[in-house]
Amino acid sequence: MRVLHVIATLDAASGGSATACLEMADALARKGHQVDIMTTDFGQNGHSIPPARSEPLSCRVLTFPVATPRAWKRSPALALALKRHISDYDLAVIHSLYLFHDMVASAEAARIGIPYVVAPHGLLDPYIRRRSRLKKAVMELAFQNRALRQAAAVHYTSHEEMRISQTQAQGTPGFVIPLGVVAPRPVPADRNPARLLFLSRLHEKKGLDLLIPAFAQVKARMPQAELVIAGPDDGALAATRALVESHGLQASVSFPGMLRGADKDRAFAEAGIFVLPSYSENFAVALAEAMAAGLPVITTDKVNIHDAVLEANAGLVVSCSVAPLAEAMIRLLADGELATGMGDNGRQLATTRYDWREIGAQWEEVCRNLIARQPL
User: Fold this and answer.
1) How much is the pLDDT for 48?
2) What does the pLDDT read at residue 229?
3) Entry pTM
4) Over 109-158, what HEC string results?
5) What CATH number is given to the structural domain containing 226?
6) How many domains, in total, are found in the chain?
7) 226, 255 in Cβ contact below 8 A?
8) Which site among 1, 56, 113, 309 is 20 to 30 Å from 227 CA-CA?
């Protein structure tokens, strides 16, 4: 099979979709298929795009320059490459929504008549879809609804994502394949059971406005607790720092920024508990990475793999409110045996259900069926 993935950027700072696309393409390529990624150089800023890896990629990455308006990640060079070469492929997978590459890739695939999959990465979630509604409505009328309607299928990363999103998919059938996880590499580090780790983009949907006041309650009862908030600023850093200062927590909360490579692995190795109190999350790669690192996790019932966390007894799931979040943190900080057991359960969950080799096999079957125009 010859499969093309199209995504606006592979910059990890843009969110989990970049990592997901890269690993998804690589997992299928390792099955012996020709898999390419077309993307732009948006977000490069001196970083390797794609990022350096411990193992070489089995898929090929074709990078094209981004032009203004950069926020839309417009790339005439990418559009030209799609026009010339999309017929070289049997199937396309188009990642995300509402961007330039969605418009041109879906139009070119429809023009040639090759099937394509839309992977929205949570953007059909009603919570996310409501944001910037006017701008999105214009894009839906211009191209996005048509792109969804003409797709062969929509990829969801969890059954919960499909349940809450499918009514917005223009009647196109969906299928569920989870994302995988690349386990953090072992690094020399001493784990601190009293250290709470948040690692994700600093965006308002991530629940940082819940985390800081909840941590203030934790700190009042457990003075040894500390909180690391790691990740690139996506609009919420200033407000989060202000909350930290208003609660007098400056000495107990650190902001190391975006962590890559060994620094990221060390953050997982040194933490005792992972916390992600998001208001919306279609999968949460960082949560799966934390479980793969053996950390007990605390998350909300708006993170779409929370049911897997509960089923595996890998952590605590709370509502999006301060008091339950604080109580969950206190409970795990106070009960080391419970925390260790949940961490062990999470590692087992991550290394079985979220193994990229198994996920590659699932994608292989779906791609074959779509290319053959067989129902999923």
Assistant:
1) 59
2) 98
3) 0.90
4) HHHHCCCEEEECCCCCCHHHHCCCHHHHHHHHHHHHHHHHHCCCEEEECC
5) 3.40.50.2000
6) 2
7) no
8) 309
